[in-house]
Amino acid sequence: MSGDDTYAPKSPDLSSFHSGPTPPSEPAEPQLFLSQPSQPNFLHLQSPASTSFASAHHPHRQAPQTQQQYQLATPPQAIAHPRPTHNSNTSQPPGFGVGPPSASQHEYYSPRAASFPTPGYSQPNTGYPATQASPPQQHLPPFYQPSYRDSFQYQHYQHHPHQHPHDLIAAQAQAHHPYDYSAAGGAGYEPADAMPPRRAAAAAAAAAVAAQTASDTAGDNGSLSPAASATASAATSVVVAAAAPGAGAGAAAAPPSIEAATVKTKFPTARIKRIMQADEEVGKVAQQTPIAVGKALELFMMALVTKSADVARQRNSKRVSAQMLKQVVEGDDQWDFLRDIVGKVDGDEKGGRGAGQSQGGGRGKAENSDTDEEMGSGGGGEVAAAGVKKKRGGGRKKKGQ
Amino acid sequence: MASHVPASDRYWMRFDTASSRNDDLSLPKATVQKIVGEILSGSSGIAFSKEARDVLIECCVEFITLISSEANEISEKEAKKTIACDHIIKALDQLGFTDYVPAVLEAAAEHKEVQKVGREKKANKLEQSGLSLEELERLQQEQFAAAAARHG
User: Fold this and answer.
1) What is the pTM of this model?
2) Which ipTM was obtained for this model?
3) I need a labelling partner for A294 at 20 to 30 A (CA). Which of A278, A305, A353, B92 fits?
């Protein structure tokens, strides 16, 4: 028994403690971060509001990476007017947006996605209320910084503001779309709704801290940055701005349920990964990748399902049939890669694809037991086929295992 | 050679070689049904038929295959061995699903955050143990020694 005792905890427990030398520094992060906002990864932990604020008013402290981004990717005209917009924004009543918040959110939808409310879309602008006030490099949502060093994507997006404005909503708003900007201002207030309460609360708290330190530094070295002179006054207004998401955090419980109403079930990532790797050419897959694919799949399904539901409605039907799905797929070039799959829908025997492969029948049988009967009758010749086939399928399964 | 074969055929070929894993390479029907229900919960009383759902599942699998093979090509071009989130984003972009990009980025970032929280907890665990690193290391060494003696 004593042997067991010593054996069991041997490595796993202690090694997990031991792998700790780096983690323990994490609790100390906030201070670390405020004094040197150089670790892009921490941007996720830190509330966006605080990060953007801290760096907004101390450009000279920017990490090299961020500066690089800044030079590569930011539109010059956005640099020109950061402060006026900031002031106008903070002095506005929170709900000042030109359109109602919901309207402003719809702005960001692509035509294709417009029919369903996608909660995630409102997050980029809502999550970073203070971003609108800060110099342009901060308009990159934090997660952009690690992944888009090359700035290629960024610029690309810049050229298609209407296709994916969410990413850079604030930057574009300042640079190109006054309307969007004011709308985003409204959203910045309201959408604490889209922020998880935890994040919103953190945002408010951290922004307050940031404002504090900012005013401190403004007192200490007023000449530190061009923005420093404005820092003291800006600090107070930012606290006000930060208070908005904080206040929203209380009400945040309700709006997330709206987004939950869209899709809260997630695809199993392990399954997605397996499907991906079933392609022999696909090698290793990063941990995050199946999650990204899962999200994309979710949006894909939404589009497909919503559209086919529309078709069903047009036909006064309560059930979406496979034919309707087919109609949707064939109606849009975006989905031409699905034509093969949908092509077999209208009661054909799937001969086309099945014949092309030696054991195609085996596949069909095991995959869709629903269509087995169709195959049996439609395939012709094999009257007793259905039963026999099933037996055979079972046998093969055993062999396979 | 496989690149000449349409993605859908590549998908089905897998089943010919490993038909026993058939179900694993599709999406769970119940989950898909549930998600469809959630999507349609807004539109009054419209439901998906079984056949439509099965076709939808196939479409989903095809979508995954398409994205991942495109992402794979991109990663190969960049001489990377691992398909990263970035490649998925680029693949979506190139395949005309540009409007999915923001939400996907969002989801990925969220996931990262969740992971961070997990790591923080681990760090706390170290702190909560109330032992210094040296003490813990000594403890571990003792247990290693004990285990070695036992199995020696």
Assistant:
1) 0.41
2) 0.71
3) A353
